[in-house]
Amino acid sequence: MLKPAPVLYALNLETGEWDDQMSLRGSPFSNQHLDPCDLLMLTPDQNYLLLMTSFHDPTPLTPLISIIDPHQFEMVKQQTIPYALRDHAKPAGLVFPIPNPLKAQLRSPLELLVKAGLVTTAEIRALQAGEDPDAVTQTPEVVDLDDPEGPTHGQGPVPTLVPQSAESITLDPAQAVPAIIFALSQRLYQQTEMDLYAPVHAEEMPRFEEIAENYRQQLETHDAVDVALDNLLGRFRLAFYLPRQDVLSLMA
After folding, report:
1. pLDDT classification of 4: cutoffs 50, 70, 90
2. Beta-strand runs (E) in the chain
3. Comparison of pLDDT for 39 and 124, the residue scoring more
């Protein structure tokens, strides 16, 4: 960029000559009696060139980003960033978001405690409700088999392990499916010490996503699902009772 008007030149590295030039809006930050801080950078995909100049609207020294197609040497868009620089701040760099490769492995502190077996989801639910977690195991939901209207076999009170119809709710698939998969993986690890999230089992994840979506739909209208899965990771069976409240706790 040259004074007095900022101009971007395209240099042919083979011939050493200018192939083209482009006039820019605003003025270089380095012309504003600031330290040299003119920013020019290619996007990570190499498809766009970003260049920052200083603009006067709405306030002096407002950053103006010019988005340029470097292959066609054409202006794509220009965008100001009002009030980005305050208290005599100076532009120092252009950064780009990138996907977090560890996102699938991230766990909340509560999830880590549950996975380590230090606390159960029922105890967490009790604490969140302000109840005594020690009383969780003392008040199971029961059905009296001696009740004339109850089951016809057996006798005495026993825990209810049959999913019951419950108030209909909506479980957001974006949150519920990962939570259910985590619950399945946690129980699978407890029974087999196999980590579902290990890269070697990546091909199994589509099946678990399909299973979790099916369970999500059931949990929208029932208080639990009866998990019974065969041939997991090629040879394991998983069977347990998954309450809706446990999934809600993982989603919280």
Report:
1. low
2. 7-12, 17-23, 39-42, 49-55, 62-69, 74-80, 142-144, 157-159, 224-232, 236-243
3. 39
The answer to whether the beta carbons of residues 13 and 52 sit under 8 Å apart is no
Amino acid at 164: Q
Distance CA 224, CA 221 (A): 9
Dist. CA 105–CA 100, nearest whole Å: 10
Q: Which two tokens stand for residue 133?
A: 């977690």
Q: What is the pLDDT of residues 97-113, one digit of tens each?
A: 777 777 666 777 777 77
Any idea what DSSP says for residue 222?
A: B
Check if the beta carbon of residue 232 is closer than 8 Å to that of residue 187.
Answer: no
Residues above pLDDT 90, as percent of the chain: 15
202 secondary structure, DSSP code: G
Q: What is the identity of the amino acid at 126?
A: A
Q: Residue written as tokens 């002096």?
A: 60
Cα separation, 82 vs 62, whole angstroms: 6
* 227: amino acid identity, one letter: V
91 CB contacts (<8 Å, ≥6 apart)?
Answer: 29, 37, 39, 52, 63, 85
